[in-house]
Amino acid sequence: MPHQCTGCGERFEDGSKEMLSGCPECGGNKFQFRPQGADVPEGPEEPKPTSEPLEPEPADDPQESSVAETVGRATTRVRDFVSGGDEPDPNAAWPDESDAAGNASDDGEIIDADARREAGTDTDTDAAEDAAQVNARSGLAAPEDVPDPDDATDASDEPPAAGGDPADASDGPPAADDDRVVSEPSDEDPDLAELREQLNDQFESIKIVEPGQYELNLMELYDREEYIIALQENGRYVIQVPDQWIGADVDDR
Amino acid sequence: MGLLTELRSSISRATSSLFAGSEPKRIGIYGPPNAGKTTLANRIARDWTGDAVGPESHVPHETRRARRKENVEIKRNGKSVTIDVVDTPGVTTKVDYKEFLEHDIEEDDAVRRSREATEGVAEAMHWLREDVDGVIYVLDSTEDPFTQVNTMLVGIIESQDLPVLIFANKIDLEEASVQRVSNAFPQHETVPLSALEGDNMDEVYDTIAEHFG
Question: What residues of B are in contact with residue A245 (Cβ under 8 Å)?
Answer without folding.
Answer: none
